[in-house]
TrEMBL record:
<dbReference type="InterPro" id="IPR016024">
    <property type="entry name" value="ARM-type_fold"/>
</dbReference>
<protein>
    <recommendedName>
        <fullName>EFR3 homolog B</fullName>
    </recommendedName>
</protein>
<dbReference type="GO" id="GO:0072659">
    <property type="term" value="P:protein localization to plasma membrane"/>
</dbReference>
<comment type="similarity">
    <text>Belongs to the EFR3 family.</text>
</comment>
<dbReference type="Pfam" id="PF21052">
    <property type="entry name" value="EFR3_ARM"/>
</dbReference>
<dbReference type="InterPro" id="IPR049152">
    <property type="entry name" value="EFR3-like_ARM"/>
</dbReference>
<dbReference type="GO" id="GO:0005886">
    <property type="term" value="C:plasma membrane"/>
</dbReference>
<dbReference type="InterPro" id="IPR051851">
    <property type="entry name" value="EFR3_Homologs"/>
</dbReference>
Length: 765
């Protein structure tokens, strides 16, 4: 009896001697954990912590000790009470001693996250998220979040058997990563969350959960659907928040793991998920950083140049979507870089298609090329070029057009771009691909100043393609010219019955007049010569008609109208005289001339001119319908096997047209003059194609002699023709004196004007 009393007395004394903070901590725990935290005692503990902040670290250490013991004994009710107490203390206390308390708090959170029980992991995550939202008053120098990044990333990839619990664990991991980012992104004293070691864990974890939504469909209960945020919504919100916080120098580290994830899981080929990811990225980052993402995508495309066509097509599709979004914000320095990379991919794809392999075809293990996949890639690249160009202002589109034109191998002007293994066919395919790209860029192109938008450096090489033997190339060039000139969407109207349509016509501006004054004769000449190509088809002649019609509608003044009529009549003469042309071509040229004169007669509205054109067309309908568009510009043309001599009332009369239009103020003398193709815009007769060829050959010989002949031969050639010293004497010799004597002791002579001198060939070009 006395012994027991003594023991109880000693214990009672020892309990009374325990530190006050421990007693206050013990008192918040009820006898039955289901009763929850003792709120009254919690208020006392909070008041004590605020009154004696130096005790915070001890309070935290003791709570951590109790929590560890309760976890080990599986007393999870008390674990929850301890975490609730810690959360309340964190929310209430903002003082200099908070750092030491936080260390104890993070130790307890770490303990819970390391536990096997999902509920404890979720409990620890929830406490960490609350802590992440607290703005601390004092800096922390030694705190590390590496463990939390790794552990939350693992939870994002949870493979727990029960699907509901697995979803909860993954969502907890996502919220945990979101908390880490919020806690560290603006704290310069913390380890940089943007470092690759962290981004390589965070970003793939988020993408994994975004991807899971496409693999498995959720079937939530109806009552919880409206209340709870879905995993996909949470993941996307977290990803957007992460990207939105990225500064200029952090974009690369945030985007690179996305590229690697798509590579590692073969997600480019499906396109859908990759496009979705980069739409999130482009809309989430600050707009002035958009070009950095485009640069990374372009670099990644280059890095995958020897990967399969489906992978490259997927990257191109992503660039297409991302570039359009970027163009609406900050263009940056990437405009030409985008096109340069895409054109390079076109060239590589052509090489792969023609050679059949990515590497040298003799190397072991070289992959087999699938032609249809390369064709699909080429279409994707061309589409991307068009979609991006459509977002650019006019001046940048003009630059892009010049840039692409500079990449096209033009005979005699630019070197071939095809590799040594592809030869002529490679150059031809590259020409076609780049012209298709150029056609995409010109779609919807509108400018008020054609002269600056289409300089000679662009127009000259483009027109040179209209004379190539390849029919597909010629047709592409005609379509490009039509696209450039058609600024009011009149093409379809011109190709249909124009008598019932209202064409959009503006008065020809001064800039348009200057453009036509400089380039009209070149345009007419190429139209005339293109009509003579034997392998032209229905599409070529329809495009030629559309081009002539649009020139008339968009760029015509009185002088242009006169020259276009002369050109149409010259085409009629061409069809009559060029008997070597196929029958279809001769009929098509007649139909082209008739269709165009019909159009221009209705636009000029001169009654006598309209009457003459109408009479000829009626005569053809009765006698020679195969000389009209209705019978020729169709899939199955109705043409004779042999074209007999065409004459009489079925032909348009140049004399009648000159007479009828001359009475309405048009230049009848010019109308009566037959059209002859000219080399320049100067209106002079007598120059034709053969002279141009002679001039070109002469220049070639001069250049060749200068490049290949030895210096002695060049010097002898020049010396034999003229002595520069003698010419100087002629120029500067004094005039004869009145007495007839000549100065400087020379015989009588006279100065020769400079314009009469004969200079050597090498000095004249």
């Amino acid at each position: 009896g006395p012994f027991l009393f003594c023991v109880l007395g000693v214990c009672g004394c020892c309990g009374a001697l325990r530190p006050r903070y421990k007693r206050l901590v013990d008192n918040i725990f009820p006898e039955d954990p289901e009763d929850g935290l003792v709120k009254a005692n919690m208020e006392k503990l909070t008041f004590y912590a605020l009154s004696a902040p130096e005790k915070l670290d001890r309070i935290g250490a003791y709570l951590s000790e109790r929590l560890s013991r309760d976890v080990a004994r599986h007393r999870y009710g008390y674990v929850c009470i301890a975490m609730e107490a810690l959360d309340q203390l964190l929310m209430a206390c903002h003082c200099q001693s908070i750092n030491l308390f936080v260390e104890s708090f993070l130790t307890m959170v770490r303990k819970l996250l390391e536990a096997d029980k999902p509920n404890l992991q979720i409990l620890g995550t929830n406490s960490f998220v609350k802590f992440a939202n607290i703005e601390e008053d004092t800096p922390s120098y030694h705190r590390s979040y590496d463990f939390f990044v790794s552990r939350f990333s693992e939870m994002c990839h949870s493979s727990y058997e029960d699907p509901d619990i697995r979803t909860k664990i993954r969502m907890a991991g996502i919220r945990g990563l979101q908390g880490v980012v919020r806690k560290t992104v603006n704290d310069e004293l913390q380890a940089n969350i943007w470092d690759p070691q962290h981004m390589d864990k965070i970003v793939p974890s988020l993408l994994f959960n975004l991807q899971q939504e496409e693999i498995t469909e959720r079937s939530p209960s109806p009552e919880t659907e409206k209340e709870k945020e879905s995993p996909i919504e949470l993941t996307e919100r977290c990803f957007r928040e992460l990207l939105g916080r990225a500064a200029y120098g952090n974009i690369k580290n945030a985007v690179k793991p996305v590229l690697m994830h798509l590579d590692n899981h073969s997600l480019w080929e499906g396109k859908t998920f990759a496009v979705r990811c980069f739409k999130i990225i482009m809309y989430s980052i600050q707009s002035q950083h958009s070009h950095l993402v485009i640069q990374q995508l372009l670099g990644h495309l280059d890095a995958n140049s020897k990967n399969s066509a489906t992978v490259r097509a997927g990257i191109v599709e992503v660039i297409s979507e991302a570039a359009v979004i970027e163009a609406s914000g900050s263009i940056g320095p990437t405009v030409l870089e985008v096109f340069n990379t895409l054109l390079k991919q076109l060239r590589l794809s052509v090489d792969y298609e023609l050679t059949g392999c990515y590497e040298s075809c003799t190397s072991a293990g070289s992959k087999v090329i699938k032609v249809h996949e390369e064709r699909q890639l080429q279409e994707a690249v061309i589409k991307t070029i068009g979609s991006f160009a459509s977002t650019l202002p006019t001046y940048q589109r003009s630059e892009v057009m010049l840039f692409i034109m500079g990449k096209i191998p033009v005979p005699g002007m630019y070197p071939a771009l095809g590799s040594a293994n592809t030869g002529f066919e490679g150059s031809r395919m590259i020409q076609i691909m780049l012209l298709k790209s150029l056609l995409q860029v010109t779609a919807g192109f509108q400018t008020t100043n054609m002269l600056t938008a289409l300089p000679s450096s662009f127009l000259d090489p483009l027109l040179s393609f209209t004379l190539m033997e390849d029919a597909e190339i010629r047709l592409l060039v005609l379509d490009i010219l039509i696209s450039l000139i058609d600024r009011h969407d009149n093409q379809l109207k011109v190709l249909t019955d124009i008598s019932v349509l209202k064409l959009k016509m503006d008065k020809c501006s001064r800039q348009d007049n200057l453009f036509m004054k400089k380039h009209s004769q070149r345009l007419y000449r190429h139209v005339f010569l293109a009509s003579k190509e034997e392998n032209s088809s229905q599409g070529h002649f329809q495009s030629l008609y559309a081009l002539l019609g649009l020139i008339c509608v968009e760029l015509a003044n009185e002088e242009v109208v006169v020259d276009l009529i002369r050109l149409a009549l010259a085409l009629q003469d061409l069809a009559l005289t060029e008997e070597s042309l196929p029958v279809y071509n001769r009929c098509a040229i007649h139909a082209l001339s008739a269709a165009y004169l019909n159009l221009i007669s209705q636009l000029t509205t001169v009654p006598t001119f309209c009457q003459h054109v109408h009479e000829v067309i009626e005569a053809r309908q009765k006698e020679l319908p195969f000389l009209l568009p209705e019978d020729v510009f169709v899939e199955t043309p109705k043409i004779p096997e042999k074209l007999e001599k065409v004459e009489g009332e079925v032909l348009f009369s140049q004399a009648k047209i000159a007479e009828t239009l001359g009475g309405s103020g048009y230049n009848s003398e010019r109308l009566a003059t037959p059209y002859i193709p000219q080399l320049t815009g100067v209106s002079c007769a007598g120059l034709n194609v053969s002279l141009e060829e002679q001039e070109r050959e002469r220049r070639r010989q001069v250049v060749e002699r200068f490049q290949t002949a030895p210096f002695e031969e060049i010097a002898a050639h020049c010396g034999a023709r003229v002595s520069a010293h003698a010419k100087l004497i002629y120029i500067y010799v004094p005039p004869p004196s009145p007495s007839g004597s000549v100065g400087n002791g020379h015989g009588q002579s006279r100065s020769v004007p400079v314009y009469e001198m004969k200079f050597p060939d090498l000095c004249v070009y």
